[in-house]
Amino acid sequence: MQTLELLVSLKIPDVTALTAASAIRRRLGYDEVLKELRRSDYYSLDLNATDPLAANGLAQELAEKTNLFVNPNKHSYEVRSPQDRGGGPTPQEGLWRVEVLVTDAEGAEADDIQQALTQRLGYSEQVTSVRRGILWTLLLTADSAEEAREIAEQITVTTARDQGVLVNPHFQAWEII
Fold this sequence. Notes:
The chain is of the alpha+beta class. Helices cover 29% and strands 34% of the residues. The chain has 4 helices and 7 strands, in the order βαβαβββαβαβ. The relative contact order is 0.21.
C-alpha cells in the first residue's frame, strides 16, 4: 500500500485565492505578514502498488487518463508523497511556508470519486481509498515555525467576523500539514 497526494491547481490566476488573500490582508490586518496565498484541490490516494515508482505512475495515470481530477486545458498537477510536503522555511530568511488542509466533514465528493474509479473505470484493485480537500499554502513572515503556525491558524479558522477566513469550523475540518 502506497499513499500519494495529488495537488491540482489552476493554470490561470485563482480568483478565489486572490480574493481570500485580499480579505486576509485588508480586513484581518495581515498586510505585512501574508506574502502569498495559493489554493489547490487536494486528493490523498491509497494505492495498491508494489513500490513508490509504480504508485507514482498509477497516480499520474489517474490524473491524466480519467476526467475525475484534472482538466488539462485549465489545470496543472503535482504528485507527491506525504513525506515530500513543502511546509517549513523558505530560502528567504524570515519567510515560512505553512500548508493547511481543509476537508468537509462528510466527504461525499471523495466517496463519489472512489465509486467512479472502482465501479465505472475499473481501478477497484489499484485504488483502495480517496480523500479530498482544499490545500491552502500560505507564505508568511514570522520569526519561527511555531509563530508561522499560530498565524496560519488565526488566518484559517473563522471564529468571529474579523478572525479567520478559510475554514468554517461548523462543517469543515482542518489541519496544518
